[in-house]
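Minutes, project check-in
Item: structure for the 385-residue chain
Input as provided by the requester:
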Amino acid sequence: MPCVTHDDAPRLADLMPWSVAPLRPGRAWPTAPDPGSLKARWDALMKAEGPDREALFEPTRARTLTSAVGQLPGQSTGTGRLARAEGPCAPPVRVLTAPFDEQWLIPDHRLIDIARPELWRVADARQVFAVETGDEDLPLLATSLLPTLRAGRIRPLYRRPGGTEPNLAPGLAAHLSARLGGVPTAPADVLAWILAATGPDLAVPLTDDPVLWTAGVELGRRMLWLMRRDGERPKLPGGRRPYVRAPLPARPLTLHYDRDEEALHIDEGRIAPVPPQAWDYEVAGARVLESWFTARTAPPAPGALTAIRPATWPQTWTSELLELITVLALLAGLRPQRAELKAASSITAAELRAAAVLPAPESSRRPASVLDHHEEGPDGQFALI
């Protein structure tokens, strides 16, 4: 396995030039682990009037009941002022609210302080968002869902809907393929390598070894599959799959891990086996399983819309928890292979500059023009973009 200094390894920001700052929701209540709660919260807001509606809304400098904003791209929400809004809630959409925590969001621009419409314009079934985490072990998350978590910059794989115009430095894929002796380097392959090989400083070691490249791409594809959880559901080997051994309570309050028993205790409920590496899995200093549980059980502020939530623990949450345990255990098992990739670098930033791949043109760092239809602006007017 070649081992070359990373001092001149290209940076993620050079290889995937277009990035967007994180969304800023501004208020917690338009996001929830279940869509039913969001519809009930919206209904409660619509029934309130005057100062009561304002208090429930939780205004900020960016959003008040009289803010004038257009629709989010791809959504069909109202654009009238919320002070006089009525009618049903927009259908909630699935989003990534924290590392490995998929929840639901009301996709209404009037509820989100900074929504980053440029991301909504390119969000579709073929899109993959790479999200900087600031974590030493897992510098990047990948998701097909719109990421709303508080993290680093977001880098879509594609600059246009439909999986077109890759967000890669122009000429990068062709240069890699040539150096690899003609091995195909599709955009998804490049992202897979980046996902598996990127270091905590967001340097991306690149190799000209076809065997190593193929292994790295396969590793990255598996990571991508585990993070996106699309298609066939991930499973641990027989005998290691977590099951509910004692029923979970209707309204759990506490979470405890027994390392000797490899069991996760949720009040009197019990899930086992839970591998230690799944329990210990952290991103940016936060234990993933604890954060996931807290997001569903922490006491809400009295009188806030967040107090509207399921009266009992839904069965769907149990299924999601079992799958999350599996995903974390499988990802932890890939760490040795990822370490090998990070020790192998042979294509430097200097080489890419000499080949005119870097620096990427300034236009590639800005959003592409993707408007092929009208977007509704404030109060029903067409947006001028």
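Outcome recorded: The mean pLDDT is 93.
No further action items on this chain.
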